[in-house]
Write a structure and sequence with these properties.
Chain lengths: 423, 151
Amino acid sequence: MDVTNVMAHVASSVDVTNILVEVAPRFEGYVYPNEASPEPLWGILIVIYPYITGLVAGAFIMASLVRVFRVQALEPVYRLSLLTALSFMLCATMPLLLHLGHPERCYEIMMTPHLTSPMAIFGFVYAWYLMAVLLLELWFDYRQDFVEWSQTEPGFRGMLYRALMLGVTDESEAAVKLDMKLGWIISIIGIPSAFLLHGYVGFIFGSIKANPWWGNVLMPIIFILSAMVSGIALCVLNYMVLTWVRRKKIDMRCLDMMAMFLFYALVIDAAVEGLDWIHRIYSAEEDFSVIRYVATEKLFYTLNIGQALMGTVLPLLMLGLNQVVRKRLSDMARKRMYFASALMIVLGVFAMRWNVVIGGQLFSKSLRGFMSYKMQFIGMEGWLLGLVVLSIPFIILTVMIKLFLSERLPTAGHTPHPTPPSN
Amino acid sequence: MRLFNMPPQIVRLCLVTIGIVGSYLVARAVLTPPSFREYGFFRGDALKDIMALPPQYGGKVSCDECHSDQFTKLNKGGHKRLSCEVCHGPGYAHTQSPDAGMHKPTFTVCSKCHEANPSRPKTHKQIVLKEHYAGGKCMECHVPHSPAEVP
């Protein structure tokens, strides 16, 4: 690739990209004037948006393994997975609202719905998933407990549980059976809904046909699979951290089962992402030289080291080893390997989102030039705000665990759905 | 609560759903601007709001009233397709009151169009400013109102 001079008029628009040093935007080759901005239009906040949405979908699918597919070993993490999904769901639109810069206008997307705008439709996909799937499933699962807790808990907690009861105090066997049946139905509806939610995020990128890095029919599928992987990995981490905080013993049967599903999901995800690359490399379309340069130079660390090695190969080896020689490994060794794998996967999927969002903005539409991105520290697209946005779901989850997964509060004891619904 | 012999959970959820959908419809009726869709998928009154804003630009013809010599010169030269306000900045206030000053162009105005940029057509005159003249005073050698003229 022919590297020509830095365009002087663009170099003059030096932007403060860090609190300490000024870094001039750098361009290589031929870049159109509209692409020669100091930083890409979509920064870290747009990276976080599909990341959080993916964690929601993945955590929900983790929960549905218990309810729909009746994997009873995973029961200890059923509610934790659902609460994880809800905590992240409540923050899913936050990076978008912050990125757009006028969060007070958020309601307008719903007031004047535009049926041909992908982002406007996302408002309805989001609302459906939050209101009709997540909250309903949680309500049916918790209803009996709300009735109990509202009678025993004083003060604010009692009021909260009474409000969440919605005035239904029926605890008869038939009513609880109905709760479980309806929860099961919603969970079944929830699986395609979770696929729709995150597949839709993939579609938003995949439908940008002008950009060869994004415009790809496999994009929604890759997004869904990586979402499942990241969601399950997050549940593994949450479960291990929660039991450590509570000084409880980890249910190894449950953890082994989670690791098994994590491994299978990762195998499928790695296979489909590999297929995508094989297709790109073999077909080698006119944009391939640019894509190759982006993959091997511009995104070397985040794609090859972060996404491929740390996020895929090492966890595959570790989790795969556990599948083969699980019985020979001690509980402590397995726990350490699961924790390390889950952590690497969570970081690797974040790198994947980074590669998709930022990678697509690092080369010119002319296919003959490259832009660069230096992330700010402070500011709306700075990594400080990114960290804050990413930490908010964990704060919400902590509050939810205190309120709805407290050790102090006795649960009704019914399993999500151990037997097929007979009513 | 027994309504039509339905289980109480279903009745409550139906009521909550009706409440949410009803609130949405009420909110939509209240919060959607009345002029929405008047001309298209936007608030019709937005056009009136924009029209009510004070004008910023006076337009090229208004300059002719007082600066006809420069105006005539400009219209004969290579910059004839440019409006005065491209270099001098918005001047509506100046057209209303000559006391309101105008922006005095510096080399940055020239470099906006003439700094070398590979995306510009070859026929367009371009220089690398730092190599061409580091002094930054273009008008020592060039006459912007008549680029072909030598001062």
